[in-house]
Structures are given as structure tokens and as C-alpha cells.
Amino acid sequence: MANLTLFELPNPRPKPKREAATGAASVPRVRKAERRQVRLLPTSLDALLSDDHQARAVWSYVEQLELDEFYGSIGSVEGRAGRPSTDPKILLTLWVYATIDGVGSARALERLCRDHSAYRWICGGVGVVHSTLSTFRTESLEAFDRLLTQSVALLQHQGLVDLQRVAQDGMRVRASAGAASFRRRESLEQCLADAEEQVEKLRREVAADPSATAKRRQERKERAARRRAERVKEALKQLPEIEAKKKTEEKRKKARASTTDPDARVMKMGDGGYRPALNVQFAVDTDSQVIVGVDVSNKGSDLGELPPMVEQIHERHGVTPPEVLVDGGYVRRKDIDTLAAEPHNCTVYAPVPKHKKSKISPYEPRPKDTPAVSAWRVRMGTDEAKEIYKERAATVECVNAIARNRGLLRFLVRGLQAAKSVALIYALAHNVARTIALAV
To answer: How many domains does the chain have?
Structure first.
């Protein structure tokens, strides 16, 4: 009876003989991936990151900033209908941390908020889409500008920044415009006429189409066409300024402006080529390597950029740096005179250009020099000034290189205002990283 079974059992397979350890027929045993198995892994977002993770440090830093300006612009309030807005603290932390991480695209940041533990921790369960991220970045210029001032003020309060010596340098960043988008006046006028005709045509189609879905699609097309027309109008508006910089009438006729980013200008880049770009200016405290001033222009040269930056630093921080370091591209005699006089009383350290034909030492005063220019020549010939000037390359050029490594190679936004917002976020991210490093 013991051998009776309800079902017929298969014949048992003989046990394989154990092969010798050195046998050729031995089969390796491995742990294989099993992705379809349902697992219950109870955890919290806070447990995803270690206590010393950089995302926690960035969040802690942002919590110290005054963000009342961001909260004051939110239309959704308690007691009224409407969908709650995304917390500006989350959006700011996402952009600062993403910039440190080398991420500059709103769409890429949206994907990371779904897939990456650090970004999910920052979101804290709040869904974020790329349109919200993009709007927050491009439409908060004034708020970002004030946050940069706050970031330096926090370090000044801790005694980590004294603004006694500041170095400034510019870098050309590729603009969001293709070379083929630059058109001459006749071509721009034709583009404008075509764009306005397209806008009017789409308006008529929207008014005549009764279908709601198709109507929304046509409205999107109309908005895109209207934006194209606005950009072409802006290009025509800026064309006289571009023409005025040309020396001959023949060159003025060949002046061109971009239909996709009218603020962009063709500049000589670091590799010697010419491409549409914008000029980003950073001013850095040499002692702490903290960015204390930011500007973005469409000038291909750094001439004339020094006095506005010194004034900006004074307006931001209430202090005029006693010493500023710049390279030869900034050297202009009237700027040296301006900064040496009241109310600046600022000493400029910049290389003295050598005359190609004259054998006179460039450090000797010239008959036509003003007292400030003569003092600059003599000063730059001393060993002390040469040692001080070495700090420029070790500070501001280092900061520019870090910005490049973090992705500041090409702007993904259009226009000077949006580009300056991006540059300010890079400055904020850099200052956050410096604050963490200086606090260690």
C-alpha cells in the first residue's frame, strides 16, 4: 500500500555523478537576474540617499535662502479653487543640483526626476514636467539675480568672502541659433512677410474649424508662427545696430541678423572659428573663488566690460573691490582712469601691451599718459604686481573651466534675458559647491 499513488509519477532521473574538480564537463554556478519576480521592498525616499549625499547639502543650502519673491508670484492660494503649484524650493534645488551634475536640459531633468534616486528625493513625490522647469528657469531672472547676491552675503557673514581682490574674465558660449539663420535685410523682410501671411492664414482656419481638437492643434501652430514673426521683427529691429558697427557701406549691406535668436552675434571662439555666440562675464573673489558678479552680452570683445562689472559688484554687495584683475582684452585707458578716480578708487592689474615698433619699455610712462595710466604701467613692471596677476588665471579661468565642465558650452534658450538666467543658475550652483567646500 505504501507504493500506491494517486497520480502516475515520472521515472526519477538518476543523480549526475560528481565530476572531478578539474573535469572539463563541470558547469559553473551563477546567480542569474530575475526581473519578473514581485518583491515587497518597503522603503522611504529619505532612505534612498546617504546622510552626506550632495543633494541633501544643496537642499539645506536652498532652505537658507529667502524665496518670498517666488512664493509671492503663485496665484494658487489656500481657500480658493485651483491646482496647487510646485514648490519653488523644489524647482530651484533641482536646477542647482542638476547644474552641478552637468545637466542643462529641462527634458533631461524631467527624466531624471522619474528615474534617478537623488532627483526623486529632491522632488519628494511631487511630479515635475519639463515645461514647468523651463518656465521657472527662463522667467525668474530678477529673482535669480537677487539670490546670487544672497549667496555671497551668506559667505560674507561667515567671513569667507572679503571682496578685496576680484578677477574678471569672459567666455564665448554658443548661442541657440544656427549659422544658416542669419539673413540680410531683404531676406528678413521677405521672411517677415511670409510669417505674417502664415499667421493670418492660421487664424482664419481656427475661426472656421468647428472641431475642438483640430482647433487646439491649429492654435498651437498659430502661436508658433506668431513667435517666428516676432523673432524676425526683433532681428530687423537689431539690424541697424549691427550695420552701424560695419566700417564700409559694402559691409553694411552684408550685415545679417538671426531669425531664431536675434540677440546672437557671430563671434570668434576659443578654437579660432566663428559661430553664433553670447559673451558671458564672471567676476570671482580670488581668495574664495566665489562668483560675485555675472553679466551676459552680445559683444564679441571684452573692451568696456570692466567698469560695469565693478559698479555691479558695488550695487550688489555695497563694496567696491580695491583691486581687480583682468586680461589684455579689457585694457582701455579711459577705463583705468575711471576706476582709479572717485568713487571707485580701484587698482587695475592688467598686462601692458607692447608696442610692435618702439623699443621703449612698456612699463615706462608715456608723455600722453594720464597719472592713472602712468601708475598702471609702472605698477605692472614690478615683481609684486606680476605675482598678484598670477591669481587671475588660477581663479577666474578655473571657474570658467568648471562652468564648461558642467555643460556651459551652448545655450539651450534664446535671448539675452533667458541666457542671463541660465548664467545666474550656473553662478548659484558654483557658489553652493564652494560653500560646501569652504565649510568642510
So the answer is: 3
